Amino acid sequence: MAFRDQFPVLDRLAYLNAGTDGxxxxxAIETARAELDAQGAEGRLYAHFARRFELADQLRAxxxxxxxxxxxxxxxxxxxxxxxxxxxxxxxxGPGDEIVTSDAEHPGLIGPLLAARERGATVKAxxxxxxxxxxxxxxxxxxxxxxxxxxxxxAPAELAEVPVPVxxxxxxxxxxxxxDVKALGCVAYAAAGQKWLCGADGTGMLYLDPExxxxxxxIFPTYFSFEDTGLGLEGxxxxxxxxxxxxxxxxxxALSAGALEVLEAEGLDAILTRAADLTDVFAAKLxxxxxxxxPRARTTLVSFEVEDPEAKREQLLERGVAxxxxxxxxxxxxxxxxxxxxxDLDCLLEAL
Length: 352
Prior knowledge:
The chain is α/β, with parallel strands linked by helices and 352 residues long. The protein has ten helices and twelve strands. A hairpin with a 5-residue loop joins strand 11 and strand 12.
């Protein structure tokens, strides 16, 4: 079966919305259904909980491969926002601390930054391209996107060299562009399972550098946070990143693990290259058609200006094209994956 044919939604839509939610592969749907069927037939007893841990470790290993990280440095979370929130809330940040961020961040990072500001920290927002240059002797850390959710620009490579910790929002990075947390020089990388990795809503990952992780308190521990749940008040939280694991539904974790298997079977490197090449074609053809395309890098997002983006989004959907409008901007955003092809571009241009 061709890679594109593994995604049922492509039978009826030019689906260009993976930056919000990726298309789900048939095999992942079948995997999740099997886990639900098993729960219905067998009940949710000890074996059910053992299966949840097994699936979580399977997904953790997959996410670790994706980020070029060790599995023990990866937590299974409910998404990008949960990971960012856990890290920023767990740090001793307050008066006298300065966080550098960009002026075009997603609410998933803005929320934790606002909470840090309420604790007395200063949050300095600068243009995305100026993130590294904005670091001064007063800066405590940088928290920003790896890939801009608005334009598809990449964070400055110079961030890997700044003398303060860097926390990256990888919502538009993981599964869309190469991710190597060591090369990026970040101490934390939070990302989503449902976007470019085509998994379930409410799944995600958090990479945490072990040394930096010692500074991050476990603010909202769960059953999954403990070394040994039988020790009561004598118990201790895990030292590894898995202390930030969240107790996700068995079928959701299975769906995300199944989707990742489909992507890895195709070859992640091939997927990233094919998607980036196709997005470059989309951007060029949109510009040739007279649309103003936002500045971007070699990523999988292309944003372009239209009048009344929200209304245009609905008009396009009626014509079989799924894109997203970006609130507060003049942009529609097309999220291009390796499952797309130029027929989707043709559909978009015709519908416009």
